[in-house]
Amino acid sequence: MHISRPRSVLLAGAVAVTLSATALPAAFAAPSSTAVISEVYGGGGNSGATLTRDFIELANAGSSAYDLSGFSVQYLPGSPSAGSLWQVSALTGSVAPGGRYLVAQAAGTGGTVALPTPDATGTVAMSATSGTVALVSGTTPLTCKTAADCAADTRIVDLIGYGSAVVREGSGPVTGTSATASVARAASLADTDDNAADLSAGAPTPVNTAGETSGGAGPGDPGNPTEPGTVRVHDIQGTTRVSPLDGQSVTGVPGIVTGVRTSGSRGFWIQDATPDADSRTGEGVFVFTGSAAPAVAVGDSVLVSGKVDEYYPSTTTQSITEITAPRVTVLSSGNALPAPVVLDAASVPDAYVPSADGGSIDALALAPATYALDLYESLEGTRVEIADTRVTGATTAYHEVWVTIKPNENPTRRGGTLYSSYTDQNTGRIKVMSLDATRPIPVANVGDVLSGTTTGVLDYDSFGGYNLQATALGTLTDHHLQREVTRKQKGKELAVATYNVENLDALDEQGKFDTLAAGVAVNLSSPDIVSLEEIQDDNGAVNDGTVGSDATLKRFTDAIVAAGGPQYAWRYIAPENGKDGGEPGGNIRNVFLFNPERVDFVDRPGGDTTTAVTAVKTKKGVTLSASPGRIAPTSDAWDDSRKPLVGEFRFHGKPVFVIGNHFASKGGDQPLHGRYQEPTRSSETKRVKQATEVNTFVKSLLAADKSARVITLGDLNDFAFSPTMAALTGGRTLEPLITTLPKNEQYSYVYEGNSQTLDHILVSPGVRRFDYDVVHINAEFADQASDHDPQIVRVDVNAPDHGHH
């Protein structure tokens, strides 16, 4: 088992070198009696080749182990030009006396036989006919381009020029290389610093430190069998989430290739065409090839040998069962694929996942007929099919789209799937990605439909859990989702909005400003007050001590005017540099925009980064000690987080107190789909403390004037049913407005196909009549200026009775 393996593991050609622990020669003019390059092959994967990739092999002619830590092998074209550079492949580990060390290099599209498990991997596409390879003490690229210059470089331990290479040892390079021939040193590993004399051409014979060869001649190497071994895929998958064979080697596992992934975490899936009768034991498995392009095609019948491994994308996710360091024998091609398992509303259970009281579910026996995640786990690596699925999360920048296979599961009014409680997870959500580069995921918005059937392999990752790696995509049916426009406030209504503008700064493209500005001027119909979250300082993520954001706000307010809105003024308190979290260097803060033609801001000095604003009781009601001000800015509740901004406004002569918030993010919480169930929401503790601070301040306002009109709003990063909201509303100080909407409209954000609410507007009892709206313009769309939808409340400050609509 291992966690968070880098997915850019280099698997390319291999080089053989002989190494020892004695002092390095001063230059390759002094022959090496220890570490040498023993074989070089640049024809891997070429037309006519048997091996699928290039390699360099090292050997150790010395009497003690040779440490390769910090060494590299480097490659230069045979006839280097002025622009030619040495390409570096770093080495680790050591090579035993008389042993070999294999460096895999780039794979081609030809060949059928994999190298034995390489000891190091590079990405160099070496020439089959001419080139230079050097073993170097260090990983800094060489700069020499002639034999004489290279002979003077004391970092070079050994060097081989082959074909017509200009850079070589001795009077001439060794010749005879081709798609089917390497050059290799004699069995004695003798090095006279004359390439033509020391090496000769022949069939490639790569050997790694374990003594394994591609033909299986090495000790303990199962090689490339032509008959199935005793282990089948369902034996590997087992009846729990973790393979009973984790960490063990397997030989000749049979299967049909059902999907090939050529980018990112490269590899392919195989599925047993003759499944067992146990619904818990999966019949598909991923074969991980690192950065090496898989040398198989869909429909190939293969035998796979390698090591079983449970790969955890992160410490809190479930694992992916894989075969690593694979050796693959292709028996035949063009075979029919196993029939896909149909996933639909009838086949996926309504219960989400078993509980382990917060512990790991890894060891629990799967119950695929009871729990959705157990069903998906039992199908990990297996071909599945979905049909006519509605989009619940728009296409992302990573070419992914979320759909539901349960059309009646908590639907929203506009086509999404509502996330309504911690205990009622949406089991029909699944992410779809495409394995076919010629048919990428279409640009889809929430409510669109992937019509017809989508077929592929069920996989798992840390960004959302189970997903379908599609080999055949349905067609997009566009349901023409429209961006909403809220009504204009009436003359007697004070309109107050909240909008997270997602790291806006003065260096952003004008298009982002224009789109966000149209959201304010057109879609929100120019509110009187807009509380903004994630306004960055003027140079964005540049971390040079800048904390002002006036240039950012001038560009934004000018863009609002250009979009037909009013000329807004603004107020904010600049944060201390690096103290408010968010993107490093960005210094995000809360900001009030207001239309001075409609509403007055009461400026009262004294508000700064560290001074706490207080409620001041007067004969005419409550006022603020400073406006704008910050709530308890030195409280540890706000460590590395945004401090709430409080402002005193007057509308039609009546005071209104607005509190702009941006609570701590949910980063660090365990995922819904993870191995710990129920997941721990570790970030919640901080938000509850923050909510308590705001609640305490609102209570101080209401203690001074129980009829004070207080509007608390912003990105609270938590749900209406969360402990955060309970702490914020405690003592009936504030009413959350999101719950006044119909159930299927209670959302402002879409995450992993769940429509949910992180943004909120709450009002005190003194706000007696209001009209509230979430204005959907971003979260459901592939093309979005922010990932949040804005919200607005229109308040009648002169309402005599308590009522709302």
Explain this structure.
This protein is mainly β. The chain is built from 8 helices and 43 strands. The strands form 9 sheets. Strands 2, 3, 4, 9, 10, 13 and 14 form a 7-stranded mixed sheet that branches. Strands 31, 34, 35, 36, 37, 38 and 41 form a 7-stranded mixed sheet that branches. Helix 5 packs across helix 6 (550-562) and helix 7 runs parallel beside helix 8 (723-729). Mean pLDDT is 91; it is low at 3-27 and 216-223.
Q: What's a concise summary of this model?
A:
This protein is mainly beta.
List keywords for this structure.
805 residues, mainly beta, 7-stranded mixed sheet, 8 helices, 43 strands, 9% helix, disordered N terminus
* Count of DSSP strands: 43
Q: Please work out how many helical segments DSSP would assign.
A: 8
Shape: elongated
Largest sheet: 7 strands, mixed
Q: What structural class is derived from the secondary structure elements?
A: mainly beta
Classify the helix fraction into a percent range. Answer: under 10%
Low-pLDDT segments:
3-27, 216-223
Rg of Cα set? 33 Å
Task: Chart the SSEs and their pairings.
Layout lengths: L1 E2 L10 E5 L16 E7 L11 E8 L5 E2 L4 E6 L9 E4 L3 E2 L4 E8 L12 E2 L9 E6 L10 H5 L4 E7 L19 E4 L9 H4 E4 L30 H5 L11 E13 L4 E6 L12 E7 L10 E12 L7 E13 L8 E2 L29 H7 L4 E11 L7 E4 L24 E6 L14 E13 L3 E8 L2 E3 L15 E12 L5 H14 L5 E7 L14 H13 L6 E3 L17 E6 L5 E2 L13 E4 L2 E4 L4 E2 L14 E7 L2 E9 L21 H21 L5 E6 L7 H7 L5 E2 L12 E3 L2 E3 L2 E5 L6 E5 L16 E6 L9
Parallel strand pairs: 1-18, 2-4, 9-10, 17-19, 20-21, 23-25, 27-28, 36-37
Antiparallel strand pairs: 2-3, 3-4, 3-13, 4-9, 5-8, 6-7, 6-11, 11-12, 13-14, 15-16, 15-18, 16-17, 18-19, 21-22, 21-24, 22-23, 24-25, 24-26, 27-43, 28-30, 29-30, 31-35, 32-33, 34-35, 35-36, 37-41, 38-41, 39-40, 42-43
Helix pairs in contact: 5-6, 7-8
